[in-house]
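Quick one - first record:
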Amino acid sequence: MRVLAVYGSNYGQAEAVLRRVTGVLEARGHAVSVFKGDAIPAHLSLQDFDAIVVAASIRMGRYQAYMRDFVQGHRDALNACPTAFVSVNGTRPESNPEWRAEAEGYVQEFLKETAWEPRWTANFAGALRYRRYDLVTRWTMKRISRGRGGPTDTSRDYEFTDWEAIDRFAEDLARALGAQER
């Protein structure tokens, strides 16, 4: 299948997660085109693809505005073909029940707001990129992390992503898309 993959990423983790998913899709024979949501070529037509994977990350409680605009602007095309939404949200490990509830809440709010109905959704924890943040973001993220009992040493970064869970999701998605193709 021809798969379009579009991502929104502030500090690189959502892009890394999406590229891991697309790597598995390509290894299973799917042709994948990847674009950042705010850098999609004007001539690109979603109808040229058999399936679409969208990934976005949460920063300060919101997905990227350009990803919301992309989904709302292409809602009909997205709802007309097999689609997946991958959400990356991370200041706590995925095993944390509070994280799971919060992450699912972000997804449901986004889907309701955009009226998009993807066939598959997945939530993955992200990372604290203290060393990449500007001063204000670093201070804010440190306060949020401290309030949640997370790491506060801003001299290093922390990754919470479960890469094996991403591989399992990607394998399941590749199989499902392969079955759709037949």
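second record:
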Amino acid sequence: MDDSECRAPDRLRALPSWLLNQAALAATRLVGQAFAATAMRRYHYSLLAALDEVGPASQADLSRMTTIDRSYIVATLNDLARRRMVERAADPSDRRRNVVTITSAGRRQLRTLDRLVGNAQDELLAPLSTKDRRQLIALLTQVVDHHAAASSATAGM
């Protein structure tokens, strides 16, 4: 088989869902490769980014913000705490709940990860112009926000 015969069928290549999935696979691979040398993963980055942006938060709030399952949140926060990138403390208003805060070491690591993920984004979107990249991000944001809102509305029923 030559390369043209290994190409996905046109029927698939015409499906936005298939194309998005293929792009997501490439993005996951590129970000994973970028983070490999740091022994950090996408979940680490997501949690550090959320804490840096919103400040101290509960584990449950972090799960909702990042869409990371609560069971993975605990394991990932344990790892970040062991590395002294986050701190946990009992919530003064509800002792049953932990509040998580990013540390200065966590912020330093986040800056490194920001650079690495930025490089991975550049590699992923290499065939696109700056204008096309902005347009793609805007369109994907619309799709994601629409389905997040629909999901929230359904969950509230």
